[in-house]
Amino acid sequence: MAAEKLSDVQEPQAPTYSPPKSGLVSYFPAAWVPYGELMRLDKPAGIYLFYVPHLVGTLYAACIVKPTPSLSSLVNVNLIFFLGTVFMRGSACSWNDNLDQDYDRQVFRCKTRPIARGAITTAKGHVFTAFLTSLAFGFLTMLPLRCMYYALPSIFLLWLYPFGKRFTNYPQIILGIQMSFGIFMGMVAMGLDPILQPEKIQGSTGTLYASFVAWTVVYDTVYARQDIKDDAKAGVKSMSVRFQHWTKGLLGVTATLQVALLVLAGTLADMGPGYFTVACGGTALSLVILLQNVKLEEPANCMWWFKNAYWQVGLPVVSGLLGECYLA
Fold first, then answer.
1. Rounded to whole angstroms, how far apart are CA atoms 207 and 266?
2. Which of 101, 123, 221, 232 is most buried as measured by Cβ atoms within 10 A of its Cβ?
3. Would you state the pLDDT for residue 2?
4. Which among 235, 95, 251 is positioned nearest to 167, based on CA atoms?
């Protein structure tokens, strides 16, 4: 694959802030708009990114536990996870933007974020982060107590992630480790604690978890390519900056690893042909399409693939597991 040069990346236009004119946040009172923007309610793709591992965990557990859980119980648990995710993701964005405000002022795309542009003070940002975290914790209390054992390290990793851009070139791996904890929480919520399972199921769970870590590295590396020139100047570390001349190669290796781990997870869990055809085959096809079509030198194209490719990969895995649970 041809290497991408940092100098070839198109520099985006410096944004001018204007309040949202469509979407949920556009209906907020003017004083609330910066807070809606801070928790990214105007950019729901990130909510799905946080939520889907929880959904996958519940479906994976439903394929294993006997008797198979009812669809109503599955929906109820996932409703709690989804609503909790809205606030936990908002808390993570608020925390990240507060710590990164000096960096954001040096990055064209991020200059108009609420804290960076001065619409919300640092102190109010921290209070808002605590408020959102408390709301997310309220939903967590509706789940089995053992979910808390997996939620706490996940929260710690969310706290750590902004610092990862300062001390390591691999913050995407930190993010992947954190995001994928949703698989464990989803399993526990359906009555299947991975730590208490036979060795074979533990191995299957571990490989499924690792496959989502790999996927997070793929989509967040594509996302980070938008700001690669500004990040390099500001001293922000990322795998996009570290592998700026070999990003396509990195994505190809990581995507291949993801599919291999999905296959291994299904093999260890004795999944049926539907899982391997839809979850594994569909994921492989989606990743090939992404790698062939993403234009890493074009920030707008990177954003498009970030917002859309997750569903192109997430849906095959969810569909494959759903079919394995309730149609096989």
1. 9
2. 221
3. 42
4. 235
